[in-house]
Amino acid sequence: MEKLGIFYGSNRGKSEFTAHLLKDLLKDNFDIHIFNVANGINEIHSYNKMIFITGTYGSGELQSDWIRNLEVLKNTDFSEKTVGIIGRGNQGFFAATFVNSMKPLYDIIIKNGGNVKGFTSSKDYSFEKSTALIDDEFVGLPLDEMFMLEETKSRIINWLKKWLI
Q1: Nearest one of 22, 75, 26, 24 to 53, comparing CA atoms
Q2: pLDDT value at position 43?
Q3: Which residues of the chain have pLDDT under 50?
Q4: 156 vs 165: CA distance, rounded Å
Q5: Residue 107: what pLDDT?
Q6: Chain Cα centroid distance, residue 21
Q7: Of 6, 95, 144, 153, which cross-links 148 as Cys (Cβ 3.0–4.6 Å)?
């Protein structure tokens, strides 16, 4: 069975919850390992298929544990690796920086030869702007459990169908 690494950074446990939900949804398709990036990300070298989960904080910043690991990411060869990105945010209170945290991860993966799958249309979201957009699509899956909680699980399931193709 193919290995899948799920890497998350979480201040309040919501990204960790998402990681475990993903594991439950994908357990029949992959040998899944979950990593809290607060403990480092050296394990990324062992996976060709990964999902990165991050929240967006302050005025659009990447989650702090991811920030501490940016140098490792920048020095990682992502060629022959496929990565999906999930960004958590709040499109109501932080509409001008909605899920900005996905973009730095995306940029590093692409610069280092990786394949990012799972772009999501922005049409079903209500926000002012986001750096995580390319041609009206987010570079991953945006989740907003405050204003779109009821849609979260179905959004994840639909995203996984696209991501696994």
Answers
A1: 22
A2: 94
A3: 165
A4: 14
A5: 97
A6: 13
A7: 144
Torsion of CA 116, 121, 126, 131, to 10 degrees: 40
Q: Are strands 82-88 and 61-62 parallel, antiparallel or unpaired?
A: unpaired
Question: Whose CA is closest to 87, among 70, 106, 68?
Answer: 106
**Of residues 30, 29, 44, the one with CA closest to residue 105:** 44
- pLDDT at position 148 is 59
Query: What pLDDT is attached to residue 94?
Result: 57
Structure tokens at 110: 């692409």
Rounded Cα–Cα distance for residues 119 and 139 (Å): 5
Q: How do residues 104-136 score in pLDDT, each as one tens digit?
A: 999 999 999 999 999 988 788 777 678 888 898
Report field, pTM of the whole predicted structure over 0.85? yes
